Amino acid sequence: MPIIDIVSTEDIIRRKIRKHCNTLYVLGTGVIALGLWGALKVVLLFANNPAAILGDAIKDSSLSNSGIILVCVIILIPINILLLLYIFVGHHARAEGKGQKKRAFYIIVIAFLAFIYSVSAIFDVFALFVDLGDNITLEEIIVTTIVDTTASVTLIELFCSAIMIRKYRRIINTRDK
Amino acid sequence: MQKDFHYYATYCAASLAGYTHDECMEICYSAQFVDLCSETFLRKIKAPKEAATTQLQLELMDTKTDISGLQIITRIWSSFHFLPYDLHAERKHATKMYLDKYRLICDTNSDLLVETIKLAKDKSLPAVGLAMHVLADTWAHRYFAGTPSFVINNTDFYFYELIPGEDGFTERPVQFRHNPSAPDDPEKGIYTNSIHQSSETSVMNLGHGRAGHLPDYSYARYKYMPAWADYGEILKDNPSDYMNAFCQMIYAMKYLRGMNDSFEKNRYDTETVAPWKDEIQTILEKRQIDACEDWKRLGEKISGKEIDDFDIEKYESEYTGSSSKDDTYLGRFIEAAIAQKSMVTYHIFSSGNKLAGISKIKKAEDTDLSGRSGKKISGGGEDKE
Amino acid sequence: MNYFQRIRKIIAGMLFIFAGIILILFAEYGYMFILLALGLYLLVYGIRMMLYYFTMARLMVGGKTILYKGIILLDLAMFTLSLSSLRPTYLILYLVGIYAAYGVIDILRSFEAKKIESPEWKFKFISGLLNLLVAISAVVFGLVMRSSDIPVYIYCVGLIWSGVSRIISAFRRTAVVYIQ
C-alpha cells in the first residue's frame, strides 16, 4: 500500500515518537484504572477478611476498638498514598502522550512503583507454594498475582516509553541543530 | 464527496470533456444519484433492490451486523464509495481476518478504478455518471475502507487541521463532537463525527465516519494517524486531491467519449483545465461547507447554459410509467449499478476475501433487470451471502 | 438498534427478570448463582477482548487499549468467581456496587443520547437514575435496619426492573449519527 513512504531516518524516529506517545496515553489511562480497581479490591478484601491483611494482630483480644481503628487507619494511609501515586503517574503519562511537556520526576515515580510491584509479584508467586494459613485463600493469591504482574508489566512499559520519547526527541533536536 | 462536487463539478468536468449540455445534465444527475439510490427509494419505484448504491441511516440501523448483514454493507460501500486499492496487499504478522479488511482500504489509481472506467465504455450516460462518482470518491475517501472495521477506520485525538496563513500553515487540533443538529464549524474547527464504539463491526466504524465530513470538504487539509498505518502520519490535502479528481474525470470522460484510446492510471487532463484552474482552485480552497453555488456558477460559465437544481424525482415517473424499463434513464442507471457491484464483488471474492459475499459470475453481460417478471437477475442478484 | 440487537436486549431483559426471581425464591443459593453467571459473563467477555487484540487490534494505533480492557475484564471475572468465601453482606454490597455502576453508565449514555437529540434519552436517564437509587437504598436500608435481607429484596426488585426496562427499550426507535 503506497500510502506512507518512509523517506528518511527522521520519519522513522518521528513515527516511533508517535507510537510511544500513544503508548503513554493508553497506559496512563490503564494505570489510573488499575490503581482505582486495586484500591477498591483491597478495601473489599479488608472489609471481608481483615485477618488477611492484619494477620494475627486482629486476633489479639487485648487490642481495644480504638486500637483496631488506629491499625486500620495506618493500613489505609499507604493504600491512599499508592492510589495518589498511580493517579499522578497516569495523569502525567496521558498529558505527555498528548504532546504536553512534562518534567522527568514522574518517570522516577514510575520506576519506583514498577520496582514495588515487580517485587510484590515475585513474592505472590512464592506465596502460591507456601501455606499462609487461613488468613488468605488460594483464589485471593492467584488474583493478586495476576494484578501485580499486570501492574508491573504496565509500569515497566510506561517507563520504557517515557525514556524512549525523550531519547528520540533529543535525536531530532540534535539533527535540527 | 458531496453534491457540490458530484453534481456541479461533474457537470463542469463533463462539459470540458466535450459533452453537450443535455449529456452533462444526465451524467451529473447520475453521479449525484449514486448517493441517493437506496433500497427504500428502489422499493418505492418497484425497482430491483440489488441496484442499491447507498444505504440510508435508517437502513444501516436495521441491517444486521452478522456476517450476511456485513456483506451487504461491504458490497455497497466498497463498490461505489470506497473502491479498494489493492486486493492482494500484504502486511507482516497479520491474520487473514485482519488482511481481509486491510485489503479493502480505498485509494486512488487502482486496478479496480481502471475496470470501473472500462465497464462504462460504450455504455449509457448514467453509466458514465456512476463511474465518475466512483472515481471522485476514491480521492475524497482514500485511506478508509467500505466495511465496518474499528481496526481500519478508527481515528484518535491525533487529528490536526492545517490552516493556511501568511507564513505557511498553522496546526490546529480538530474537535470532534456527536451532535448532528449543529452544523460543522470550520472557523472554530468543530466537526461532527460518529460515536466511538470499540466493537469491530459497529456501523459507527464504517468508512470515514470517525473523521466526520472532513474528507468531503474540498478546503480541508489535515493530518492524522489512520488506525492501520502503524503510527505513520498522513497529510490529506483535499484541495490538491480534488483538483486531481477533477482533471482525472475529464481524462476519463474523454476516453469514454472515444477521444482517447485508453484509460491509464495516474493520468490527468491538466491542459483542458488550465484556463479555469485559478477559478477552480479558488472554489476548492474557500472554507465553506457547501460549494454548490460556486460550482454552479462556474458550470454555467463554462457551458453557457443554466444548470437545473438536482431533483431526485426527475426520472421517477418515466420509470414507473414505462413498460420497457430498461430503456428509461433509471433503468440504464440500475443496469450500470448492478454491473459495477458485480464487478467489484467478483474481484473481491476472487482475491480470497469473503467480506463482500460470494460471487458466482465474472461479468453482468447477461443482466436482466426484469425483477417484476420473476426472472433471475444475474450480476449482483446472484451474489450469495 | 437493528433487529438482531433488539432480540438480544429482550433475551437479556428476560434473564435479568429470571435472576431476580431466583434470588427471591432461593436466597441462600441465589448469590452463588448470580456471582457465577456474572463471573462467567465477564470471563467470556474478557477472553473475547484478548482474542480480538491478538487477531486484529494489536496492529491498530492505540490497540493496547483493547488489551488492557481484556486484562481488566479477566481480572474482574477472576475476582468475581473467587468471591465464594465472601460473607453474604459483602457479596450483596459487591453486586449492588456493580448495579450502581450500570446505573451511572445508563445516566451518562442518556446524556450522550440527549446530545444527538435521540428521543430515548429521557427513558434511559430515568432507568439509570432508578438503578442508582435502588443501589443506594439497598445499602442505606441494610445499614439502618441492620438487616441483610432487605438489601437483597431491594436488589431483586432492581434486577426485575432492569429486565423490564431492557425489554421496553428494545421496542423503542433509536437515532444515531452515521456519516455518509
Major sheet characteristics of chain A: none
The termini of chain A sit apart by 34 Å
User: What shape does the CA trace of chain A take?
Assistant: elongated
Distance between the termini of chain B: 29 Å
The profile of the biggest β sheet of chain B is: 4 strands, antiparallel
Question: Taking all residues together, what is the mean pLDDT of chain B?
Answer: 89
Structural class per helix/strand content of chain B? Answer: alpha+beta
Measured as a percent range, the helix fraction of chain A is over 70%
Instruction: Note poorly predicted spans of chain B.
Output: 364-385
Strand order, main sheet of chain B: write it out.
2-1-5-6
Could you estimate the helical fraction of the residues of chain B in percent?
A: 40-55%
Number of strands of chain B: 6
String of helices and strands of chain B: HHHHHHHHHEEEEEEHHHHHH
Q: What's the helix count of chain B?
A: 15
Counting copies of identical and different chains, the oligomeric state is heterotrimer
Sequence of secondary-structure elements of chain A: HHHHH
- When the domains of chain B are counted, the total is 2
Q: How much strand of chain B?
A: 5-15%
Compute the number of strand runs of chain A: 0
Explain how this protein is built.
- The complex is a heterotrimer of chains A (177), B (385) and C (180).
- Chain A contains five helices and no strands.
- With 177 residues, chain A is mainly alpha-helical.
- Chain A has one domain.
- In chain A, helix 1 runs antiparallel to helix 3.
- The radius of gyration of chain A is 21 Å and the shape is elongated.
- The model of chain A has no long low-confidence stretch (mean pLDDT 79).
- Chain B is of the alpha+beta class.
- Chain B folds into two domains: 291 residues, no CATH class; 87 residues, no CATH class.
- Helices cover 42% and strands 7% of the residues of chain B.
- Chain B has a four-stranded antiparallel sheet. In chain B, strands 3-4 form a two-stranded parallel sheet.
- In chain B, strand 1 and strand 2 form a beta hairpin.
- Chain B is globular and about 50 Å long.
- The two termini of chain B are 29 Å apart.
- Chain C is mainly alpha-helical.
- Chain C has six helices and no strands.
- Helices cover 81% and strands 0% of the residues of chain C.
- Chain C has one domain.
- The interface between B and C is large, with 49 and 26 residues.
